[in-house]
Amino acid sequence: MNRRRILAAIVSVGLLTLGALLLPSLHKTPPPPAIAPPPGPAPLPTASAEAPKTRLVSESPVLPPAPLATQAAPPPPPQAAATPQDVDPHKAFGSKNAPVVMEEFSDYQCPACKTLFTTTNRLLMDNYVSTGKVYLIHRDFPLAVHAYSRIAARYARAAAQIGKIEPVEQALFQNQEKWEQSGDVDGTVASVLTSSEMNKVRALVKGGTLEPLIDKDFALGQMYRVNQTPTTVFHYKGQTYPYPGVMTYDTVKQFLEQLLSQK
Question: Radius of gyration of the chain from Cα atoms?
Fold first, then answer.
């Protein structure tokens, strides 16, 4: 009997002790799961440096590039100007006091020169040369690859000496394919001059005084690094702008207006 009471007491004490240990954990509320706070607006970026500004490379007017078919190289930047030298007044058009001087290095047997003469130059003469804005100088630059270009230059320069450059240049360019095949430069020029005028032209051609003038033009072209025809050299306010290739009238007009608008 006593043994049973002792065992019962031991069991009771054990149960009470186990209940005391388990009771706190059974009533303890687990902490709620951690929840990330809702995202707010992104912070404004702080600029570490000022944004780069666009910078103009040059304030000088720039010629549009020539068509690829006629341009050997991009137009070079403006160069230090040289006053046009050895100007033959018989082969210069307009006023010497014009604000813009244009030198055209040309070859009478060059198809591109023909295009420039028959299209662009006519409008240029009417709108800029005749109005006193441009002084246009023709420069002879006969290329060695053209068999009759130097002969044509002699006849044109002789015609200029007697005041007949305009009809002779027109005849040479408009009939370029014919005399290029036949070599008959003399007959081409004779078709637009009287017999008396033609006699004077022939005398000048044979006299030998024209060759040095052509050579001076050619040497000047080499100084400008002309390596193709036509090449046009613009002079304005102490700057020189060479342009190789055929220019449309719109291209010339745009560039001239850029130059003339400078203060």
Answer: 45
Question: Which secondary-structure segment (H or E) carries 171?
Answer: helix 165-174
List the Cα angle 37/43/49 in 5-degree steps. Answer: 160
In the predicted structure, residue 153 carries a pLDDT above the cut 80 = yes
Phi first, then psi, for residue 158 (nearest 5°) are -65, -40
Exposure class string for 81-110: b at 16+ Cβ within 10 A, else e? beebeebbebbbbbeeebbbbbbbbbbbbb
Q: What length is written for the chain? A: 263
**pLDDT by residue (tens digit) across 100-127?**
999 999 999 999 999 999 999 999 999 9
Residue 198's pLDDT band, with cuts at 50, 70 and 90, is very high
Amino acid occupying residue 23: L
**What's the rounded Cα separation, in Å, for the pair 2 and 18?**
25
| 181 neighbors 147 (Cβ within 8 angstroms) | no
> Strand 231-236 vs strand 239-244: parallel, antiparallel, or unpaired?
antiparallel
SS3 244: strand
From the list 104, 108, 106, the residue with the least C-alpha distance to 183 is: 108
**Domains of the chain: residue spans and CATH:** 99-260 (3.40.30.10)
- Please give the Cα distance from 153 to 91 (Å, whole number): 11
Q: Rounded CA gap, 144 and 142, in Å?
A: 7
At 254, give phi and psi (nearest 5°).
-60, -45
